[in-house]
Amino acid sequence: MSFFRCVGDFFIFMSSMWTGPISKRILISTFVNECFEIGIRSCSFLWLITCFISIIVCYNFFSLSNVPFVSKTMISLSIKNVVFLEVAPTLPALVFIGQCCLGITNSIFNMKTTGQLDAISVVGLNKYKFHAMPKIIAVTMMYPLMAITACLLSLLVCFIIPILFFDAKAESILDGFMDKHNHWYMNVFLLKTFIYGFLMSSVSTFVGFYSDELTDIETVSKRSFKACCCIVLFADILITYYIYI
């Protein structure tokens, strides 16, 4: 499938979710179930990965604490910027793709191969609105919340590790976290999480719906993982480029 055909099919897929009647009660119940499956059951592993990444980032930055003219307050400020701009929004997104988005792709593809999606169309329901829309809305709303908790946990880890292993004072770390604090970091952080949530959910559902039925599920999973990772990293580059020009 060519690139331009994929892009065209993607826009057709997104527009197809807004056609056809469906009960609001069904949509809300499906949305709540998806929020529970995607958000609550994925938090623990996401928090664990965030803790390990934060420890590594903290060790790498505070290894420069012995360098002259580099204060621990300046190092803490640099850690805060890295956490807000990359560690909390982007790296958990790649973990989230492998944990949840592949499950979305596999579930939709299994329903397609077993004929469940055709059965939904036969009874007069919009299969895209019934299955794709709740998943996309749930991921778009739940991933920012998960990223916010991961950000707070990352800052907590980066506060504790220097005190325990680098003889840093709590006042110097807090001064670094609060020095030159700008709400611009939070705006970029929230913008990234909402964009990542929408891109991950829409691309993973699109791959599940538009993959050939004769394709094995392993190939579909790899295709979905590569597509989601590439588009998230490309979006990260674009956002980073446009916020600094």
Q: Briefly, what is this?
A:
With 245 residues, the chain is mostly helical. Helices cover 81% and strands 0% of the residues.
List the helices and strands and how they pair.
Layout lengths: L2 H14 L7 H15 L4 H20 L9 H16 L3 H23 L2 H7 L4 H39 L4 H9 L4 H28 L6 H28 L1
- Helix vs. strand class: mainly alpha
Helix proportion of residues, in percent? over 70%
Beta-strand level of the residues, as a percent range? under 5%
| Secondary structure tally, helices | 10
Overall shape:
elongated
Notes on the structure:
By secondary structure, the chain is an all-alpha fold. The chain has one domain (23-244). It has 10 helices and no strands. α2 (24-38) packs parallel to α7. It is elongated. The mean pLDDT is 85.
Describe this protein with a few key phrases.
245 residues, mainly alpha, 10 helices, 81% helix, 0% strand, elongated
